[in-house]
Each structure stands twice: as C-alpha cells, then as structure tokens.
C-alpha cells in the first residue's frame, strides 16, 4: 500500500497515460494486412481455397505411379480436370446430391456413347467395299457421330435450362459426349470403342472419387455448419441493426431528419454549398441490406440442412423454428428502418428535400419545416431514455439466444465470481444474458416500454395545444382533455399534418415494441430447448421418410437459389438468382382449345406437348448450344480437317462451349474479355508452375496446388466472375497435366492417339488459342440469331419480381381481410386458412428477397459493361428495383400490423370501453372498401409489360390513396380521436395507414418509370392524347399529321 496520499496515482490520469501510450505505440497495419482485409480473406475461406486445390494435385501426383499411368495412359490429365469439376468445396448435402447426379450422368453418357460408337461402326461396315480395311476416314461414320452429338448436346442443354440443379451433371455429360463423339469416327472395331469408353469412364469416376474423398474427409463442411454460421451472422446483423437504429434515433434529437443527404452552407462563404452523407443513415441502410441478403441465402440453404444426416443437438424442426423467429424479428426491423424513407417522402411532399435560393424560398414552407424539425427534435429527446433502454435490452436478448443455443460462447467469469452462490433472481436489473431468469426480465422491460409510451404522447399533445388530464391514460374513456379548434376540424390541412405526425410517432413505438416481443419469443424458445433437454447432449439426427421423399422429388423440381449458391447454375453464371415462380407465371390458357373431355382429346394434348416443348425457351437454348458445338465439331467430321482437329486438340474448344454457355446468364463484351484474360493469365501461371521449380515434378505439384488454391478465390469471394475462375483453373491444370503425362509415359505413348507432342512453351499458346476459340464461338451463338444479353435477363428478372410483388400483395390483402373478419382460424392447424396464408406469404416473401438481392447484384455490375448502341437506362431500373423493394417491405408491415386484430393480448383487454372501441374499429375497417385488387392488377400488368417489352395500355393510372383515416372519421368521428391514441389497435392502424400510403406513392413512381422504359400505346386518333397531360382534340392530331405530310411533299 502507498505510505502517503502523494503516492496514490490518479486512475483517470493513469488511464489517459495508458491510452496515449497505446495510441503512440499503435502502428498502421502492414501492407500484407491491408491486402488481406481488402480481399475479404479469413481463415475459413483460405482453408476452403486450400481444400479446392487438393483433388487436381492428388490426381496428377498418383499419376506418377507406374500402375496408374499404365491404367489411364493418355487420359491421365482428364482425371485432374474432372476432379476440379467435382467441386469438393460444396457443403456435404449439396455435394452428395450433385455427385450422385454426376455419376449417373457419366454412366448414362457411357451407355449412349457405346450405342453411338456401335451405330457409327455399323455405318462404316455398310459403306466400306468388301476387302477394304476398316480404318481411315469414313463419311458415313462421321455423319452418324455428328447426328448423335447434335441430338445429345441439344437434349442435355435443354434439360440444363429447365432444371438448374442439373448444371454440373449436364456439363459432365456434355464433356463426355464431346470427347466420345469426336473420337468415334476413327474407331474401326467395337473392341476399340469399348476400350476407349471404358478408359474414359474410369478417368471420370476416378476424378469423382478423389473429389468425394477430399470433400468428406479433408476439412468437411456440412450444410448444418453453413446454416449455423448464417444464423449466427443473422443474429449479429440484427444486433448491429438495433445499434444502428439507436444511433439514428439519437441523431433525430438534434438534426434535420427530412434529408438523408444534408446540403449545408459553409460558414465562411454562404454561397459555397457542401454535400455530406449522414453516416447514421448510411450505416443503417448497409446493415438492413445485409440482413435482407442473408435472409434470402438462409431460405435457400435451409432445405439441404434439414435433409442432412448429422450428429448434433438441434434437429431439422428446430432449424425451421429458428428461421421463423428470425423472420419475425426482421420484418418489423425492416419497417423501422423505413423511417429514413418516410421522412424523405414527407420532405419530398413539402418540397423540403432541396435547398432553394433565399429569393426563391417560400417563407411559409420554410417556417413549417423548421417547426416540424423542432417538434421532432423535442419528441425524440423525450423518448431518448426509453428507446435506448429497450434497444439495449433487446440486444442482450439476442445475445442470450446465442449463448443459450450454443451459437456463441459466453464470456469467461472472473476468478472469485464463479464460486459465488448468489441468487440470480435477486440481482434484479443486473441480470445478464445467459442467466436463467432473463426471459422474465426482458418481458418486464418490454411491458415497461409499452406502458411508458404515454410520455411521448403527452409531449406531442402539449406541442399541439392539447391538455390532457393527469389520469388520462389510466381512464381514457372518462378523463377530460381539451384540444385546439384545428384538431377538431378534420378537413383542415393542419389536422392532416398533425395526424400524419401522430401516426409516425405511433409507428415507431409500435414497431420497437413488436421487435421486443419477437425477441422475447425467440428467447423463450431458446430457453425451452434447454428446459426440454435438447441442448444437454448431442444425438444422431436422421431425416424422416417424408423429408427423404421430398428430397428425391425436389431433384426434379426447380428450387430457389441465390447467386452464390453452389448447387445450381448460379455457380456457373455467378450473377444469376434462380427462382421458381409457380405455374401461374408461365402457364397460359389456350384460346384455341378447350380442356380435354375424353381419352382421345387427352391423347391429343399429350401429342401437342412435343411441339410446345420445341418452341420453349429451354429448347431454344439447347438448339443454340448444339449449333455452337457443331460449329467446331464440323472440323472433326470432314475428310480434309479431321487430322487437323485431332492434332490441335480442338475438342477443348467444344468443352469450353459446354462450360461457358448458360441458359440465363447472357453474355457481354465485358465478360467475354474477362474470360479471355483469365485464360491468358492461366497460361502465364502454367509457365510459372513449370519453370519456377526448375521443372522438378515434386515442385511442380506444390506450385500447382498453390496457384489452383489462389484461383478458387474467385468462385468463393467473387461469384459474379466464377466462370473466369473455373476456366483459368481448368486451363492451367490442363497444360501442366499434359506435360507431366508426357514426362511419365514418354513421347511415343503420348503421341499414339494421333496428337503430336508440344513443349510447354508451344502447348500454352495453342491451348490459349483453342480455349479462346471456344469462348468466341459461344459468344457468337449467344448473340445469333438474336441476342441473349445480360440486359434482357435483368429486364425479365425485374418482370418476375413485379409478378412476385403482385402475388405477395394479394396474399397479404386476403390475410388482412381474414383477420378483420375474424375467420383466420387456428394457425397451428395445417388446414386452417390462416396457416395456409402464412405458409404462402412466407414462401413468396423469401422468393422476393432472393430476387431483389440478385437484381441489386446485377445492377451493381452494369457500370462495368461496354455499351453497344445507346446507353442502358440504369437509373430507371434502379428506381424500379427500389420501388419494388419498398412495396414488398411495406406490404410485409401490413401483414405484421394486422396481427393486432387477432392477438389475444389485444382482444382481451381489461376495460369494457377498450373492448367496445376495438370491436367498433374492426367493424368500420371491414365496412371500408379497400381497392387491393386494383394494386394487384396494376402490378401484374407492369410485370407483363416489363418481362415481354410491350408498351402499356393508354390512360393507365395508379390507384388513388386509400385515405382510410378520412373514411373512418366520416363513419365515426370519435373512432380516431385523441381519446383512443393509447389503444394498441390505434397504433396498428397508424402502421397500416402509413404503409398503404407509401405503397400508393411507390406505385405512382413505379408506373412512371415503367412507362419511360416500355412506352405507352398511342393510336394517334385519341380524343385525349396519351403523350400530353393536357386535353387535346383529335382534330389537332390530324392537323399536325397533315401539316407534316404537306411539308414532306
């Protein structure tokens, strides 16, 4: 102990000294660390990159054994290529499904290849004169192989377009067919064909086997691991969103909330204007966008995790329940984040989002703005403490879930505290996440917040000149209050503004309270898992028979997938989001045929299915691929060029066509140049791999592993350019694999298949030319006879998103009606209307989130495109995407807020007056005719116009605003009076009113921008011209047309 007071150090000074010292000692991060952070690398990603490079390395390493080299001979390098396409980095359930399909497709391909070889040999036999040898070029045999190749490539790519989950199996099949069909014309006997097919089958299956062992044994990754990582990240993002909302709400206490981008005047020079982004708004938008993206990914990954055989604690049903709780928290969180959008709409409505010149500014409007800002600053200051407290408790609730479900480890207790036998219940407010009574603590804090909303309402009333009695909120039906005349006049502008402000205040409080109840429900579910013993020990988790049956049937169904999913075509597009929209989106009623009524008519419908398939988009894509493949394969089937084809290995150009052509990605000059650059880079890397270790085999294998691992960074972290990464890795492995093969078996054996030996410095450029030629052919056939561009894919995807918006709004509208009528039923019963509506609502919402994520990703990369012709209207597309996103979010809020009408805690209120008000409210709501069908029809019409590129019909207008408040006040003036502002149904109505108003505004903006994209029909003889907002007669139009003709004459 110090002997005198002078020896006692000041803790504040000591802390400042330590902080200063830490600041001085802090060094800027090194260049390597900066690069590491910029690339987004972490330990799991690096491990996956290392894992992905192991299969080709093993394939080429075992080829150095004499027995292996003797078995595979000149096909050794093909084992390494196939092992790469096995994609061992996929999670286990997805990998097993894809690998099973790969093996089946290879076996089927072998059988068909043998049939093709047999039929081609028969053609040779029947066209070869007696006594002539069965060798050399034969046109009939070549023609038969060409027909087989064209048919198989057409069929397999049509299947690929129809079922995206068959992407890898169809590519594997196409590679097998390309190799077999181009070598087929040189076989003179069936023994040669069988030997070749057998070696080809062995090479493919060996590559698959190596990939399978690496996937299941080395750093195994399961779908459940992926799901738990996503759930943990989801909860972390929700916690981040809570803190972002807390910071934004705090900023509303002192800043102008009517502009997310503040335009300020410099203090020194008032004529100089400076733009500054509000950091709280930007942070909030970033986190909310990340939550939406992760929600879509969770939806697409969840089915595979539920089907997996695993050893763990939480079963498939628990994963489903967790996802439901996360969604229940996310929807009000999205609604709360819309505060930024709502304030922006108010500013736009009052023209407050600009900074006009002093001589142009409207003094009255500027005064109203300053008054509104002052009022909101005061209101947000008054609710600072309750809002901050409940947000902090909700954050602790989410942390409690992480600890309870063992998704995160609780902090270690300090020494001495672990032995304390203090009662947790007695701690009161000091209870921590992970403690036993935390759910009750959260429940109490949530109810305290709900009861404490009186403070904000009282402040608002005082600002509006409304005097409330002290016991007003305890006895609202009998307590006295005095309000100004403008509040009584429901037709005045001031009344409308005040009501809008009150609704927004109730909107905030309702959503924060809803989030707290959703978090409480999640906390209670986590505690129940512990109480039921599910978290006590791990157990073997087996999928049930029903789930296995669904898995088998789902193989032949289109499933939803994100742009970075690793089981569908999205792997190969990198920018595609696969969404199954349902039969209603594609099925059309036949105007030329009635439904069949007897057996013969049904048979006729079956016959008509064949031409219907031939004219489908899937058939069109298959035909494109077959034509592109035959453009190269034709060289192998002509007498003068067959030898050239074999010697120069042009089959790899055909394989590049099979890999690079995808049904929905489209092509662009930019992506084509990137793929060529990736191939060129692969050639340079191959030279480095070969020459850096002084051409020593062991060193070459090590460097191959390293560079292939680096190449897999692209599929893992940049899925948009996944094709560039795959082509680069395959090209480098192909060059190195061939050179190692020649070194092992010798030049004589390597050239026994009629292919001359090239040193690596010659083989690299030849391979580059071959691959670039294949990519060029694929690029040409994407544009010919008509282009499938990325822009057209974006337009069609946007049309699909509009369709989902119509579908979602229709479901939510029916849900709201059912809840108002009280006939939703028990949600726990599968046959109840409410259960069916909830299932459909959640499914469509998840699809919409996935699709919007893909659209934003698509749109973000358009700035890199090289335009051909006029510029792409990116601004209009971004506005439409944002409008669709807003409509979906506000529609979700409609559904969420309408739960109040069926919530037992709201229906079973204590006082008779509250019950009476709630019943009157429901009765009036059900009597109002809400024109939801107009919105659904308009969204469907916009979807069709955008997807098909057709102009809109003339005189199309968006539905008018609902004005629910005015209609309800017209039926019952007292129903929305100040006396009832504390009612839970009143707050729910405020959310519904704001949401419907925002939907209508977004519909108007949506209609305007869609018109600018697709146009509007104008028949030139309208009494009112659709191209002019003012009314003009048809005589004016005729006169103008006549004048133009006279001038031309």
UniProtKB/TrEMBL annotation:
Q: Does the keyword Transmembrane apply?
A: yes
Query: Residue limits of the Putative ER transporter 6TM N-terminal domain?
Result: 33-130, 137-460
Gene Ontology CC entries for this record: membrane
Question: Residues in domain DUF2421?
Answer: 785-1016
User: Residue limits of the Integral membrane bound transporter domain?
Assistant: 641-781
User: What spans are recorded as compositionally biased (Basic and acidic residues)?
Assistant: 18-28
Regions of biased composition (Low complexity) lie at 1-12, 1025-1037
Keywords from UniProt, A to Z, are: Membrane, Transmembrane, Transmembrane helix
For the region Disordered, give the residue spans.
1-29, 1025-1049
Q: What is its main location?
A: membrane
Q: Which Pfam families match?
A: ArAE_2_N, BRE4, FUSC_2
Q: Which InterPro entries match?
A: ArAE_2_N (IPR018823), BRE4-related_DUF2421 (IPR018820), Memb_transporter_dom (IPR049453)
* Membrane topology of this protein: Multi-pass membrane protein
Question: Which residue spans traverse the membrane?
Answer: 43-63, 75-93, 99-121, 142-160, 166-188, 200-219, 621-638, 650-666, 673-692, 698-714, 721-738, 758-784
- Where does this protein reside within or beyond the cell? Membrane
State the name under which the record lists this protein: MFS transporter
